[in-house]
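go over this record:
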Amino acid sequence: MSDYLTVNREAWDERAPVHAASADYALGRFDDPAYVSDTVAFDRPRLGDIRGLRGVHLQCHLGTDTVSLARLGARMSGLDFSSVALAEARRLSDRTRTSVVFHEGDVYEAVTLLGEARFDLVYTGIGALCWLPDVRRWAHVVAALLRPGGRLFLREGHPVLWSLDETRRDGLHIDFPYFERPQPTVLASDTTYVTTDAKFVNTTTHQWNHGLGEVVSALLDAGLSLTQLVEHDSVPWNALPGQMEALPRGEWRLRDRPERLPHTYTLQAIKRA
């Protein structure tokens, strides 16, 4: 497990340019100054007014959500461990003349890189927590970044969804851990989640699931108070190919009795004084 950062970074470095060129991310849509990403648009009612807030987007990848939050009026920074992804994020920010400061580094080193108790808003989006081996350590990083009264905003894939085998087409099959385990789930794939014919050389990734109770407990123990927890019956990618239907604004939902599956969740928590 000691080399998980290197293994995962190599995979993301190789995939970032393909993601940036894909129709799924469709970065050209940001040429419209009013456009915000589908992910941010989905949760905009829960985000509320963020004008003037100092925010940081952890594990920001191409910066699409980071730029979107800046367009809603927040003073945004972004952090990611992939220099290649950050190059794409800076290119997007520069091209659209959106003021965002991007930093390269491991999320566990965010306090050293960004400063303690500086932020009104810590934002983490879909598909971020599964790359981290220790959710409690992450929660303490979030708490340290926030000023007293500052807010965490998290929308994530539901841990029940992450536990399913996405390669199966004959129903829902729980084949991966729901709870966090010390050792990662080691996966191998030469593809990615966007539509592309590209095949990749860096095929191995190390991932961890974190149960919903583990995430909430970690944040409470780190000194945050839970203010919102909403589970959703949709997810912003085709998470179970062959079993999902497309919805408006880039969301997907289980075609057969979607009420059986929590697809994603939105969580908000405030740092106690």
Notes: The chain has eight helices and eleven strands. The chain has one domain: 4-271.
